[in-house]
Amino acid sequence: MLNIAFISHDRKKDEMVNFVIAYEYVFQGHTLYSTGTTGSRIMAATSLDIHRFQSGPLGGDQQIGALVAENEMDLIIFLRDPLMAQPHEPDIIALLRLCDVQGIPVATNIATAELLVRALERGDFAWRELTDKYKPGVDEA
């Protein structure tokens, strides 16, 4: 069972909901998290149970980032809107940076999300064993 988070900007929420509907069977049995409105919309359209944080601009991105920093998140699907300025852009960049630091797979568009969820569907998601052996120890960082 993996910890998976869903985040989507306003103009990407319909796309996220449709994506999760299409792969609902893959996400069942995993522990799911989301920012506020995205999670509400997904739960209204599916039978999935999602732990919802605040909306992104109110700190939801940072709440998910805290799980990443604690190495408690396994996968993030974050459908970003690259054509719209976001007032909480520093929080978004901080979350993506934490994913890079911890080696957490993050999809920021539907094509990458498809690749990650298909790997998840195949059970081909042993990335922790691969990435952990290349991470420096805490005292080496």
TrEMBL record:
It comes from the Bacteria. GO terms for cellular component: cytosol. Keywords: Lyase. Pfam families: MGS. The active site is at 61 (proton donor/acceptor). It is an enzyme of class 4 (lyase). GO terms for biological process: methylglyoxal biosynthetic process. Substrate binds at residues 9, 13, 35-38, 55-56, 88. CDD domains: MGS. Residues 1-141 form the MGS-like domain. Its EC number is 4.2.3.3. The keyword Amino-acid biosynthesis does not apply. GO terms for molecular function: methylglyoxal synthase activity. It catalyses: dihydroxyacetone phosphate = methylglyoxal + phosphate. Catalyzes the formation of methylglyoxal from dihydroxyacetone phosphate. Belongs to the methylglyoxal synthase family. This is Methylglyoxal synthase. It comes from Paenibacillus agilis.
